[in-house]
Design goal:
594 residues, alpha+beta, five-stranded mixed sheet, Heat Shock Protein 90, 20 helices
């Protein structure tokens, strides 16, 4: 899986650079197509591999680069062989070899010859022409044994292929000899356990065919154990299970034979259809009655499907060869169109970016103008509020003065006159009259003093700075009445509201207004307490309700809270919200006076 993902990543990387490379040297383009063909071949995507190999072939033919052309033809031959186009693979391999023959025998040329011989050995093995297959495998092995460097694994692979052809041809002793040479490598089980399991299984199956049952079925079990330790239910385990089924069928243990035959079939369903085909044929020989017939029918159906698919693949390869020249012409036209499209796209993108920047700058300027207008409007609103409050206070003062004058000049004068009249009537010297008049006079003196006191209080100015608190009180009274809330307003007389800017007062006013609105909408409260305190030249505004409360950590930030936060940022303040369900919520805002 990791190797497949790596191949796909490389394919994607090469695809992204092919268009760029087309504008460079044609050899670079051919190398890119060849690399794509290789990656698609190892990813078992035959169509794409053949397509890109064929494109690379055309470039190398024009450049007369026979080595790279031969290497590309070898890749095509392998794809053809994998897709059962055995005749096509043979012809392509022979052409590749003919291109290499005149070349100087460098290590890379010799290695490519070995690969081609090995492919021809596989092709003739598939065609059941085992003498030719063995001949080509021996040529490949001879070349690999003469090559420099550590070729042990490559040599062992050729020996395994050679032994397989000997086994299929009935030369069991020679097959066992080559398998034995491979298995004598004590490090193989550690370095390549998958290959070790494959060779051991072939070795055991050759012994079975040669009627040498001494180490069987233990060798099969050992091979299966090694294979499953690497990849349980992997590809190699298919043939091992098939061979075990054959062994137990020969031993007339039909139950065990069925078990391993079905194991092979179940695993083969996840891999190439050839293995499933051989598993179905095996089951048709092991199973009995209708089941055996069903397996045989499935085998015939699948075999027909594979043959049709192989013919379709061969036809597709022919169409690819035929259509490549036409595609190349179309690609030239497409490249031109893409270039113009790229140029137009770049122009559109640049124009769009410039347009976006212009619109964004205009919007930003409008936003700044709006903020400035909003600030000016807020100042104007507050000034109007202050003016209105001053007008109310002036009217109150005038009214108080009028009442004071009325009390002083009117009521007090009449009372004073009455008292003098009573004094003048005090000539009656009877004890009862004197006592009665004294009581009236005393009562009149008391009334006089009370009236003087009221007159004095009415004529006294309000405490300085109480105007903003009166505005807040009016706001709270109005909103709590509308929201059906009771309230308590507390304020610290030490706060010098004259030192607070109008902007900050407006924001405090709006914060209280928004908070009361939120309490009405969400809290279901009955009572609210609003408090102003001064701490270290910082105004501390606290708003507490007895509502339903909420989880502060999970609460969503609505428009109201966003507005409050925005206003707090404007006055360089801080916000803290604490809440407890079924108890209530407290909002604390702190804002410095300067």
């Amino acid at each position: 899986m990791a190797q497949s993902e790596t191949n796909l990543a490389l394919i994607d990387s090469i695809h992204k650079n092919v268009l760029l490379k087309k504008s460079q040297d044609s050899t670079t383009v051919a190398n890119a197509y060849y690399a794509l063909g290789e990656l698609y071949r190892f990813s078992f995507s035959a169509d794409s591999a053949y397509y890109y190999y064929h494109k690379a072939q055309k470039y190398y033919e024009r450049k007369n680069d026979n080595y790279k052309l031969a290497r590309t033809l070898y890749g095509i031959a392998v794809v053809q062989k994998n897709e059962k186009d055995l005749t096509g693979s043979e012809l392509t391999s022979v052409r590749a070899m003919s291109l290499l023959e005149p070349l100087k025998e460098t290590e890379s040329v010799i290695e490519t010859k070995a690969f081609i011989y090995n492919n021809l050995g596989i092709v003739f093995g598939e065609l059941e022409q085992y003498e030719e297959s063995i001949s080509y495998y021996e040529r490949a092995l001879t070349i690999k044994e003469k090559m420099k460097g550590d070729n042990k694994l490559s040599i062992d692979i050729s020996k395994n292929n050679l032994a397989l052809s000997y086994k299929k041809s009935g030369a069991y002793d020679l097959a066992l000899e080559y398998y034995g040479q491979i298995l004598n490598n004590q490090d193989l089980i550690d370095t390549r356990p998958d290959f070790y399991a494959l060779v051991l299984d072939n070795y055991a199956h050759t012994k079975f065919l040669n009627q040498d049952f001494g180490e069987l079925p233990n060798l099969f079990f050992k091979a299966l154990k090694v294979s499953d330790s690497i990849n349980p239910g992997g590809y190699n385990s298919i043939s091992i299970n098939q061979h075990l089924a054959e062994y137990y069928k020969y031993k007339n243990d039909i139950t065990a034979a069925k078990h391993y035959a079905y194991q092979a079939k179940d695993i083969a369903e996840n891999f190439h259809k050839d293995e499933l085909l051989s598993s179905l044929l095996l089951l048709s020989k092991i199973d009995e009655g209708e089941k055996a017939a069903d397996h045989l029918k499935a085998y015939i159906k699948l075999n027909d499907s594979l043959q049709k698919n192989e013919r379709a693949i061969r036809n597709k390869f022919a169409r690819i060869r035929f259509e490549t020249s036409q595609i190349e012409k179309e690609n030239i036209q497409i490249a031109k169109e893409r270039m113009w499209l790229l140029i137009i796209s770049v122009v559109i993108i640049i124009a769009s970016i410039l347009l976006y920047l212009v619109i964004a700058q205009r919007n930003k300027n409008k936003e700044l103008q709006f903020i400035q207008q909003q600030q000016e409007t807020n100042e104007e609103i507050y000034n109007l509020m202050l003016s209105q409050n001053e007008s109310i206070e002036e009217a109150r003062a005038l009214e108080k003065k009028r009442i004071s004058e009325e009390l002083h000049d009117g009521v007090l004068g009449r009372l004073f006159g009455t008292r003098l009249s009573l004094d003048s009537l005090n000539m009656n010297n009877s004890t009862e009259a004197v006592k009665t008049r004294g009581q009236y006079i005393a009562e009149l003196k008391t009334i006089e003093e009370d009236i003087r006191k009221v007159s004095h209080e009415l004529n006294t100015d309000f405490v300085s700075g109480s105007g903003f608190i009166d505005i807040i009180k009016t706001l709270v009274e109005t909103q709590t009445l509308a929201y059906n809330l009771t309230y308590k307003l507390e304020h610290d007389d030490d706060i010098n509201w004259d030192a607070v800017t109008n902007k900050k007062k407006i924001h405090i006013y709006r914060i209280i207004q928004e908070t009361l609105h939120n309490i009405y909408k969400h809290a279901q409260a009955n009572h609210v307490i609003i408090s102003f305190k001064l701490k270290n030249n910082v105004i501390c505004l606290s708003i507490t309700d007895d509502g339903s409360g909420f989880d502060v950590n999970k609460a969503k930030s609505g428009i109201g809270l966003k507005n409050i936060n925005s206003r707090i940022n404007e006055i360089s303040g801080t916000l803290k919200i604490t809440s407890e369900k079924e108890v209530g919520t407290t909002v604390i805002i702190e804002a410095p006076i300067p």
